[in-house]
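Lab notebook, bench 4. Still working through the backlog of constructs that have no structural model yet. Next entry is a single chain of 245 residues. Request: give me the structure tokens for it.
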Amino acid sequence: MNFSNKGFSFAIYSIDKKTLLEIKRVLGFGNIYYDALNIKWRYSVESRYEVYLILLMLNGNLVLTHRYFNFISIAQEFNQRFFKGKIFYKQINIVFHAALPDLNDRWLAGFTDAEGHFGLPIELGRVFISHYISITFEIGQNGNRWLFSYLKDLFKGGILFPKLDKNPDQHNRIIFKGTKLGSNPVTLLFSYFDSYPLITKLYIYNEWRSVHNSLLNKEHLDINKLPFLVQRCESLNNKSNYVKK
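Model written out:
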């Protein structure tokens, strides 16, 4: 969300045009075009009334700290800025608090579509097994250290990086890992994403979960099935831009 002397505007950038088309279909307004400078598709809203509708949807529903403060600044400016010589006839009753996501809303699914990584790291040379495959999910963001500590509590586990919070603007992330069914964070992730399906990363998630099922069925211990399983893992790691840590 931005404002200038020319007025207010709202934009979402994505390499996935279908997602933006779905946003436009659901909202019923906005325009989509290809932004060659950013090498992405852009969903854009510039009409004052349509910007007002976007502000209403965001009001009290933002989680990330920098998004929240950006919204407050723009909403206050929106209420004060003249439009055609007078204050706009619609005002925002600003909610001065951010939101907390939980396992009963879609926020984390949307955040994962943008920032999440599903990984299947492969470790070589284990005793009694040539390839050891892990199931990992990682999500990160600059700043917002509180969010990842909160996710660790919400999913009852996870590993935070970096371990010490010295710089408030540093890149923070959390990793969930595990293959056993039970109370581990990965099991909760399965339950959550089954209830709130992903959009841009649905295929990757489904493949990730399928490999998990293969590991539960001990396919990594079958010399005939292992090469194909390793190939699937390497393919998914490439598609999800997973980086071994």
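Notes after review: The domain at 2-87 is CATH 3.10.28.10 (Endonuclease I-creI). The chain has a mean pLDDT of 88. Flag for follow-up if needed.
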